[in-house]
Amino acid sequence: MGQTAIKNAQVLFYNDQLDELEELLPDLERDYPNHPVVMFFKGVFEQDALNALVSFEKVHKQFPDSQFADESLFRMGQYYYSTGDYSTARQVFQQFIRQYPQSGIIDRVQYLFCQSYYGEGKLDSSYMFLQAFVKNAQSSPFVNMAVMDLENEDLWKELEKNTKPAQPKPKPVPQTKEVYHYSIQIGAFSVQENAVKVKEKFQPDHYVEIREKQVRDRTFYAVWVGRFQDRESAMQYAHKHIDQYKIEYKIVKR
User: Fold this and answer.
1) Which of 36, 124, 126, 165 is least surrounded by Cβ atoms within 10 Å, i.e. has the fewest?
2) 215: phi then psi, degrees, rounded to nearest 5
3) What residues are paired with 184 via a beta bridge?
4) Predicted confidence (pLDDT) per residue in 115-168, tens digit
5) Which helix (H) or strand (E) holds 196?
């Protein structure tokens, strides 16, 4: 009976029937409080991020070979990354890569590992690992995003300063109208249809556009949400409106 209830909960999770799963969770917690699957679901639905972190840590430490142990460790890294603790996030992602190299979300983890280096300000390491990721990983949306990162000169300006002589800054041009400098990129796809599907999902509630990017001889379709005058405004909007979707995003210059 117990295994049937757990399996039914897993089916709901994999079918994205989260409302139904959340209704079942109190009964599962009462009957199977120490089951790793139940502990993982408890973390998924926990409103307090720190309490969720505790649940994921228990799953990974106490049941490292269980079904959701890899995703629990990933969500731990995701928590530190979202709070700006890039050093701890990088260490968690590195542990994931060593411990779960065959995981179905390994490409996502490898990409965030590279991004964590960038968040720490270690641009040379970030650039090097992004190159290795693109070279060695299987094709995926995260590989596409890594390719676009490598081709985005704005990301590496500070790195270039250490290798090139300083150039005189151009005089600022007076602004006569409102100018938007940033957007939130929620995906980059080599197949246009996939970008359109993501756009349609977000379009009803947000300003969304698809930007076509040429990277060497390949075309990518980046999905951008919102238009903002500064990076801080974009980040505030992302925390309020995008975090709830549990997807990876980044602030990009328009």
Assistant:
1) 165
2) -120, 110
3) 225, 251
4) 999 989 899 999 999 999 998 887 788 888 888 888 887 778 777 665 555 555
5) helix 192-202
